[in-house]
Amino acid sequence: MFQEFYTQRGEYVVISAEQASHFAKGVAGDYNPIHNPDARRFCVPGDLLFALVLARFGLSRHMEFRFTNMVGADTPLLFSETDNGELEVRDEAGKCYLQVTRRGDRTYDASVIDAFARCYVAFSGKNFPHYLKPLMEEHGVMFNPRRPLVIYDSMGFSLERLDGISPGLVLTHSSLDVQGKRADALLEFAIQSGGEPVGVGSKKLVVSGLCAYDADEMAAIVDEFYRLKAAYLASVD
């Protein structure tokens, strides 16, 4: 699963800027410029690390993911399990980028893992403008339009069962806790299968460099988002 988005070099996984950008746009629908290969502050999407963890270690009924650093292009990454059963993603120098705790039943069924990973990533890729723009507008704040910074902090979920599910995610509640120049955004979601609830989860984002909300500036950012989306879709037709 997701093999086209990384290269295996011995025990390490290496993700190029092009692979990461293709995942962000093609799988997550995420057109954040920070995932463009030529971005000055390029970083690998956290959702790609999430998907690779599930592909390698299976899907557990209860999982918590904490992102501790941003991954640059071509960084050799080691996906490992610690003595206490936690999962980690570290580089050659030992710097940690992702910590995962898990409990409960586990499945290694590739079709279930692939379906769950893809439905979550598609939901997660809608951070902006779908979820964040209304929150920022409501609170009268926005990120710096010349240097937008939204950091993926953490996510977690609990599933009632792992077998016989065809998952889909629905946003159930969102909130923004503004603290001076930064804010914590919490996105809560329901996990459904065939219209029936099978789990719940949440995702936390940190928005930095806040300034007063400017409708014109925001409109220009949203227009650029859809321009980038149209350009990508035209390139893969």
UniProtKB/TrEMBL annotation:
Database matches in InterPro entries: DUF3581 (IPR021974)
The protein's name: DUF3581 family protein
Domain of life: Bacteria
